[in-house]
Amino acid sequence: MGGQVSASNSFSRLRCRNANEDWMSALCPRLWDVPLHHLSIPGSHDTMTYCLNKKSPISHEESRLLQLLNKAFP
């Protein structure tokens, strides 16, 4: 521990990172012209986006204004 990484562990991380470095090239052609911010990308940064929809709650980490607007305009 203590900041040290074994050679096998660092190799494993590199292999995993490289496996998905070009994930956008595997997108269905229908999605090529869709802006990235319009896509729901499941599992990105452990965000629980696998079930994201219009009824999904606003995060408690969002601004108070956004939370109030969500209550006023559900």
From TrEMBL:
Gene3D superfamilies, per the entry: Phosphatidylinositol (PI) phosphodiesterase
Record protein name field: PLCXD1 isoform 10
Organism per entry: Pongo abelii
Lineage: superkingdom: Eukaryota
SUPFAM superfamilies with a match to the protein in the record: PLC-like phosphodiesterases (SSF51695)
InterPro entries: PI-PLC_domain, PLC-like_Pdiesterase_TIM-brl
Gene Ontology molecular function: phosphoric diester hydrolase activity
GO biological process: lipid metabolic process
Matches recorded under PANTHER family: PI-PLC X DOMAIN-CONTAINING PROTEIN 1, PTHR13593
